[in-house]
Amino acid sequence: MSILISGISGVRGIIDDGFDAQVVETYTRAFAQLMDNGRIVIAQDSRPSGEMFKGVVEKTLSQMGCEIIDCGICPTPTAQLMVKDLNARGGIIVTASHNPIEWNALKFVGHEGLFLDSEEHKRLQGELSKVKHAGPLTADETGTVTQLDDRLERHIQNVLDLDLVNVEAIKNLRPKVVIDAINGAGSEALPAFLERLGCEVYKLNCDNDGNFVHTPEPLPENLMELRTEVSRRGADIGIATDPDADRLAVIDENGKPLVEEYTLVLAAYHALRHADENDKRPIITNLSSTKALDDLAERYGRSVLRTPVGEIHVARKMQEEESLIGGEGNGGVILAESHLGRDSLVASGIILSLMAETKQSIREIADDLPRYEMVKDKINVQGYQPAEILESLAEKYTSLVPNLEDGVKISWKDRWVHFRASNTEPIVRIFAEGATQTIAASLVKEFKTEIQNLM
Fold first, then answer.
1. The whole model's pTM is what?
2. Does residue 392 have an active-site annotation?
3. Number of H helices, E strands in the chain
């Protein structure tokens, strides 16, 4: 059965088994119409199919008469930043992010450099319906194409100029950094950025050729080579990204991983340390991110505001609240001073600044932060309505005032559990967090049993 998944951030699928050139052309036409056939930034990650699909995007946009700015292979945040800085109408990024090599996707960016929100997505669906009822695209290619050769330098300089990135302190520290870019879109940008900071850089899988030598998602179990290399080199820190380089995972000086939730915690800690006492701007994150952020913010008399899961929800809330910093617990750090998108360059610059200013190792810093453990699981609910199951859970725990903004989240003082129905599979995802792995795992086990009893 062919797989094509259309969601608020774009459309993705398995190459030639749901996701193909015709799909790319159709969605590109619809997006061009949504953007009034104006200036469009295009980019790709390094997976081998990307060049062909980007070619389809470029040809289609040219037939629509668009002005095209081609960023080639670059991190997703680079493309988002270029949309904003070049006053483009929007952007199309050919990337399947952390999905395996046989997948590809289109991500759509609006004129502010943010992914499409729900209202923009509805409008795109309307344009998509028009395109599907129209005839084939036969117009000549009348659009213009400009290759943006300095897009990485523009991005790097943007991050170097941030108030939270202490270039001088990092240069004085001269940390040893091992970077695993999984041969993805960050293979050139991240090492170049680290070298500009004066780091001693050791590159792993930075060939930019799309050869994903391990499972692409930057989770501890997929980063064994990096962990070994950090120890072998006596490095101060190891960092890893996913194929489109918007997320960052951290390995300490002993080769031990910090779970991905703590990338944002570290960045938030640095931002809180720098904030003026009277600066009460909140931290923004999603409902499934760690409670360590709340405890940390409380130390500084600040608050954490939460949104439904998804980068665009966090980014829009950051705009609304003029937040201090934000992001998601998957290693995604967002700093509005740079741009409103997850960015591994921003994350690494902030974390290295934290190390340089505190003169502590990454492990020493992490050990001083609030600590929780998270367990993620799912349960198959084939043949049942996930919405009805979640409604029953919410009713049962009414006394705990569950959050219903995105599925059902039930919280206690020192732990929580979050249930979300999948949009593409008959499953309910379960995230739980507690002071220990045992507590979190026990929560998951308890509520899986409850869900089974509801079926």
1. 0.95
2. no
3. 15, 20
